[in-house]
């Protein structure tokens, strides 16, 4: 009986951590009656789709201009899809709707062909890894923070993930290594270090679908490059939705969606969008000049 309780606690800790990867949002979303688990994600065909999605945040008036306005797109399994566009365009909001941290006001969000409202939140979260702009660390050791992603992970697995995320050497240099206590009132990590811990967590979780909200603008050039390399590594072999603030990270994307005022105004590859000489091309020229 006691074993059972311990196991249940471990499972719910992991679920808690998954949901609170986006802690600041405190989503009020719960399972609908009759919700069923999402099956294994297919390795080919459409994986994530928005079908006429319109969205307003709960505090936005019903007649205000929506944050997302009739957004439709499809991302195939294995693709690296990037969302770019001006600040405030709605890119990050797209990343909230995929794991159903908020629900579409109108239209449907589909994962593996299923409306995310019809699947259990736990099964949806189990398939998605999130690296958000804000990494939440518990007041606990680094090892414990990493294990929230997978309680049964061995020390060797923690280290492998940390190495892939370019954070192992930094952790090893801390006074207590992986036993260093971080989080509130703990050892203070830089923004780049926290983000690399978040990447290590995602690597441990090993989800088929990755949602990356780049926050590299807050980092200096060297840690930006280190974080970027870790992100590129994490994205390899999985379907990735990247919210990009710098266009240099999306030139190799399979598909780029350009968002402006809550709408997708252009879509294509870097080369085709440059050729089209529209919003993307002018954003790209602006950033290249800096
Ligand atoms: P950035 O590149 O600056 O991160 P973005 O394209 O990711 O911008 P979003 O963060 O998706 O843009 O924001 C889109 C719009 O929604 C903005 O006008 C923003 O102020 C608004 N918004 C974001 N979060 C909320 C919220 N919780 N409640 C109300 N409005 C919000």
TrEMBL record:
Subcellular location: Cell inner membrane
Name assigned to this protein: ABC transporter ATP-binding protein
Organism: Agromyces atrinae
Domain ABC transporter: 48-286
Transmembrane helix found in the keyword field: yes
UniProt keyword Cytoplasm, yes or no: no
Similarity annotation: Belongs to the ABC transporter superfamily. Siderophore-Fe(3+) uptake transporter (SIUT) (TC 3.A.1.21) family.
Molecular function per GO: ABC-type oligopeptide transporter activity; ATP binding; ATP hydrolysis activity
Keywords: ATP-binding, Cell inner membrane, Cell membrane, Membrane, Nucleotide-binding, Transmembrane, Transmembrane helix, Transport
Any single Gene Ontology cellular-component annotation: plasma membrane
Entire-sequence positions represented here: 337 to 626 of 626
């Amino acid at each position: 009986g006691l074993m059972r309780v311990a196991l249940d606690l471990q499972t719910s800790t992991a679920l808690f951590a998954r949901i609170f990867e986006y802690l600041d949002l405190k989503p009020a979303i719960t399972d609908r009656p009759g919700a069923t688990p999402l099956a294994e994600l297919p390795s080919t065909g459409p994986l994530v789709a928005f079908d006429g999605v319109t969205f307003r945040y709960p505090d936005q008036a019903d007649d205000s201009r929506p944050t997302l306005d009739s957004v439709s797109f499809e991302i195939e399994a294995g693709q690296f899809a990037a969302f770019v566009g001006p600040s405030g365009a709605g890119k990050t909001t797209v990343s909230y709707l995929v794991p159903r941290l908020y629900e579409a006001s109108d239209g449907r969000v589909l994962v593996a062909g299923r409306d995310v409202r019809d699947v259990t939140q736990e099964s949806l979260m189990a398939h998605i890894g999130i690296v958000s702009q804000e990494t939440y660390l518990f007041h606990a050791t680094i090892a414990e923070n990493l294990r929230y992603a997978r309680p049964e992970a061995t020390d060797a697995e923690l280290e492998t993930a940390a190495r892939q995320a370019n954070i192992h050497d930094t952790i090893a240099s801390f006074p207590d290594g992986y036993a260093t206590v971080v989080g509130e009132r703990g050892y203070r990590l830089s923004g780049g270090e926290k983000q690399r811990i978040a990447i290590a967590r995602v690597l441990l979780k090993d989800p088929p679908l990755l949602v990356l909200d780049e926050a590299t603008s807050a980092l200096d050039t060297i840690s930006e490059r280190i974080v970027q390399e870790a992100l590129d590594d994490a994205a390899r072999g999985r379907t990735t939705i990247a919210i990009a603030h710098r266009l240099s990270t999306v030139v190799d994307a399979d598909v780029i969606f350009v968002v402006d005022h809550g709408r997708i105004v252009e879509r294509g590859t870097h080369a085709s969008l440059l050729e089209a000489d529209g919003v993307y091309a002018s954003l790209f020229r602006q950033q290249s000049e800096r």
